[in-house]
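Hi again,

Forgot to attach this to my earlier email, sorry! This is the prediction with D-glutamic acid bound. I've pasted everything inline since the attachment limit keeps bouncing my files.
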Amino acid sequence: MDNRPIGVFDSGFGGLTAVRALRRLLPEEDIVFFADNGRAPYGSRPAEQLRRMARQDVELLLAQGVKLIVAACGTVSSNAAEVLRAAPVPVIGMIEAPVEAIRAAGGAGAIGVIATEATVRAGAFAAALRAACPGREVLSVACPDFVPLIESGHIRPDDPDVAAAAERYLAPLREREIGTLLLGCTHYGLIAPAIRACLGGGVRLVEASACAAVSAAERLRGSENRGGGTLRCLTSGDLALFTALAPLLLGEEITPEAEALPPMEA
Ligand code: DGL
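C-alpha cells for the complex follow:
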C-alpha cells in the first residue's frame, strides 16, 4: 500500500481527460493535477523549450510528494521523453499505451493521428505505430487551432468554431478512409463529439489519455491507496476560468488552487 498521490500534468484542460479516466479506474487514489494553462498552448513551441517546461512540470509534482506521474500531454511525451525517463518516480507518457492498444486491436486499415504541431513534427506517434503495425499506412495531421479554442472555452458539443476546424483538419482523413484515429493530444478528447460527427461512426477513436490511465492502473496494481480519493487541481492560468470550466469537463465539483511557476527563460 502506498498512499502518496498520483501526479498528472498537462499544458491545460486536456489533462482532465486523463484525470477523468483515473478517477473512474482508481477511485481510492489521491490525485494532484497541474494544468499549465498560463503557458498553453505547448504545441507551437520548439522542442528545447518543451524540455525545460517538462522538467518544471515534473519538479512541481515531485514537490507534492507523488508516487507516479502521468504526463498527460502528447506534446511533452513526444518532445521530452528523456526528461520523463530521468524522473525519480515512474512516469506514464501518452505514446506507448495507445499504440499498444491499436496494435492489440489488429486490423489492416490506415491509421490517422491527430495532434499538435510539435507532436507531429517530433514524429514519435508515427514511428511507434509504424513499428507496432507494419504494413499499415499512418497519416499524421496537426490541428493547431483545437487547443486555443478549447482553452478559451469552446467546449460545447455543437460549438460552430470547433466544428469548422474539425471539418478543415479531418476532411483529408475522411477521404483516405482511415479505420482508426488516434487522438494524440489530450485536449482532443474534450471535443470528441465534433470529431466523431465529422468522421462518422465507422472510425474507431483511440484516446491516448484513456489508454495511459489504464496503463497507470496496471502499474499501481499491488500498491494502491485504500481510502483516499481526493483531487487537488493546480493551475498556472486564470483561476476564475479554470473554476468555471474544469468541473464541466470533469463532471465533478472541484476547488482549484493557483500555482505560481518560476520565471522561465524564453
Ligand atoms: N494537451 C497537450 C497535448 O497532449 C498539449 C496541447 C497544447 O498545449 O498545445 O499535446
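Residues 10-12, 14, 40-43, 73-75, 116, 119, 147, 185-187 surround D-glutamic acid (CB under 6 Å). Strands lie at 6-10, 31-35, 68-71, 91-92, 111-115, 138-142, 180-183, 204-207, 231-235, 257-258.

That should be everything now.

G.
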